[in-house]
User: What shape does this take?
Amino acid sequence: MSESPSGMSRRARGLRVGLLSLMLIAVCSMVLPLTAYLWTATVHAQETGQQAEQAAPAQPAADGKKEVNPRSIYWREVRESEPGYTAVTGQETNVLIQSGGQSWRELRNGPVKVLGAIMVLGVLAALLAYQLIKGGSRLQHRTGRKILRWSTADRVLHWYVAVTFIVLALTGLSLLWGRHVLIPVFGKEGFAAWANLAKPIHDYLSLAFVAGLVVMLVKFFHHSLPAKYDLQWLKQVGGYLDDSHPPAGFVNAGEKMFYWTLVVAGAGLVVSGFWLLFPNLGFERAAMQTANIVHGVTSLILVTFVCLHIYLGTLGSEGAFEGMTTGYVDEGWAHQHHSVWLEEVEQERAGKGAAPVPTGSPAPATPT
Assistant: This one.
């Protein structure tokens, strides 16, 4: 039985509808993902354009005034350490960037480290040249008669302060210059091990040093006041260049300069060290950075003066070191370097009616 023409027409239409539906589904399955890709690319292009527009230099407005980029204002405030809002509680937690740290790093690793090295090494080189050329200040006449210059308490105090300062100087300078001096020798691991040891030694020993320094400054204050003859001593540089004998009391003008350097630079060293030693007392980062610079500068000044003091107390002045080991100095040394003090000792001896001191025996004079 054959199918009617109308039935064949309906079946053909059904096939066409099915094929068109399959084609539509296939086209949609390909077009819809491409539409999403196009939409994402369009949004990204718009965002990129906005960012480029914001980052572009400000163009002059119609009235001739320069427009300010809002984003540059924001980052300028951040770089200037402007405080903002934060839910985190704590000191300076509302400061996103503390730009002073970069300034501190450049100052410490630049002028402080470099100029400090030039100052210390320059003085050491000058002292070495003086020793090689002139051989120090020789004792021109040794009498054999001894005068008590330093009591036992004075010498114990001196060596106590000297030893603690030298240890502090070695540990502190090794942390300042260790990257350039110790790492090439011991390597990074060796320097790290030394730094872990040097840091606590420096921190804890500083308290003992400060106590001894204060006692020493108080004890020798009356000896370190200026006198009229100090200017003559300075003009003749203590006689170290021409072997002259400028007048000086128990303490000469050079030692007085060292004393007042200890007072001024020592005060800066102690106060700044206190800030660095106790950061939990609430000091802000800017104060800690300033304290670190002050501590470095004052310590380098004191190290320079101590190098000069050590040389003049040993190789630079024959007979001086005897006083700090035995307490007694030769009468000839006292006449050559501290003539005013020797006259005071002789007047005190004459007032007491003391007999002449035999050669090789110490004179019963006690420093005041």
Remarks:
- The two ends are 148 Å apart (CA to CA).
- Residues 355-368 have pLDDT under 50 and may be disordered.
